[in-house]
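thoughts on both lines:
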Amino acid sequence: MLADMLALCRRAMVNCYLTCDQTFHHKVVELLCCGRPILCFPADQAEALTLTQRVGGDLRSCTSPADIVNGLVHAEPTLNAPAGPRNERLRELTWAPKHSSWIACCSMR
């Protein structure tokens, strides 16, 4: 089922989500792995934009209907481009190093 969702998102011209500033930005991280342009509305927090820039993703954080239209226009030429992770920087988006450090710290006590 997860593989089906990944395949669907990789075939999309653009993936979209509604921003909720009360949670962690897991949606943008999941969609970055699909390698397609991303639109969000309303505008997401700076942290989501920083994560996207860090891994070379394409996130259009929209504040108006005009921004959404511009984002779709920008994404259209990428429709036939290959999808998928663009680079190894996506591997940085993991809990593993933080988790390992936490375990090491706790085991020292």
The longest helix spans residues 96-107. Confidence is low (pLDDT under 50) at residues 105-109.
